[in-house]
Amino acid sequence: MSDTGLRILVVDDERAIRRYLRTSLTALGYEVLEAATGNEALQSAMTEHPDILILDLGLPDIDGVEVVRRIREWSNVPILILSVRDREDDKVVALDAGADDYLTKPFGIKELLARIRVAIRHRTPDQQDTVFEVEDLRVDLGKREVFVQGNRVALTPTEYDLIKVLVQHAGRVLTHNQLLRQVWGPAYENEAHLLRVNISNLRRKIEPNPDQPRYILTEPGVGYRLRED
Asked: Modified residue 4-aspartylphosphate is at which positions (predicted)?
C-alpha cells in the first residue's frame, strides 16, 4: 500500500498535527520530515529533497501559498495542501500557484493516503504511451484513441487534448485556469465558457449519463477531476 522509503515533508505549525502525521505515515513505511514555518519548509525542501510536501496554508511567518510559489520557481515536487481554509477561492489560489491537490481539515487518514498516492504517481513526467482505464472508459495516449465499452469514440482535437490533460493528472483536481492554459494557452484564461462547452461535449460522448458524470467530476467553483479507481 505504501511507497516505502519515500520522504514526506510535513509543514504545519500545529505540533499535534505533525505528530499525528508522523506516527501514521511512518507506520506505513514513509520517512517523515517536519517543518513548523514557511522558512523552515523552504530550507528543508532545498536541502532534504523530499518526494512530496504536505503543506498547511496558515503558517506563522509566510503564507502557504507564497511557499508554493517560491518552491515552484525551482522544483516540481508534488505539493498537497492540508488546510482549514475551505473557501473555493482559497483552493483556486493555492492550486493556481502550483499545488497539486487540496484537502481540508478535519481529514481522514485514508483519504489523505489516497491523495498522497496520486501525487506520488505524478512525481515523474507522464509517459506518452499511457493507457488509462476506469470502468468502461479507456484512453490510449500512445494511439490517441478513446474507447467506451470497447467502442472507439470520435473526439475533436480540442476534446482529445482536454481528456489527455485530465488523464495525465488523473485523480487530481485541475482548476479552470490550469485547464484553459494547458489546452488553449495563457491567452484564454478568462474564456471559461470554452471549457464548459467542451467539458459538456466530452461528457456527452463518454459518460453513461452526462447529467450525473462518473468519470469527469466537477469540483464546484474550482475545476474538474478525472476519477480514478
From this structure: 56
